[in-house]
Task: structure prediction
Amino acid sequence: ELLYVVEAKSAVMHELRDLNLRLQGAKSVAEEQALTDTLTGLRNRRALDLALAQAAEAAAPFALMHLDLDFFKAVNDTLGHAAGDHVLRRVAQVLTDETRAHDTVARVGGDEFVMLLPGLTDASRLEQIAQRIIARLCEPIPYEGQSCHIAASVGVTASTLYDRPHPDLMLQDADNALYSAKRAGRGCVRVHLAPPQEPEAKLSKAMKA
Result:
């Protein structure tokens, strides 16, 4: 009887270990899915916010690159949303190819993407990366015997421009640089160079106005 109890206890402990491993695996999968854009497999906005908050708290420099597709709506309107999804997956592949494994590449909107690039702050180097991405995205994308034509505009900012990098301010400055690129004719990159204002300074200025 004692031997039976020992064997039964061992079997129960083994089952509990297996169950715990399965639960841990399921938790890891769920956490990964919660940070992943389901269409493209890139990071999503939540994952970007977490990575950006961590980068802003750290001492190491980094850059933000905000990319918005040009003429994407025309693809959806003429070839349908399935073609649009195909294009977005192709864009995700290009962005993954042109960045490093430890960079954060996120889809933050329908056709908007943000890249967080640790250790890169040189404006000329960032422009080169952006221009290479833009050149690849200008190439026709085949889809069921048709060709999808898009372009991309890019805005860039770097943490070294700020006394204290603030995620919201950096995202806004990258966004402003992006729309400067669109005003310049699209299919190009603009780097944020203006002296930034901290959120407190902007609020004080707004209150005085």
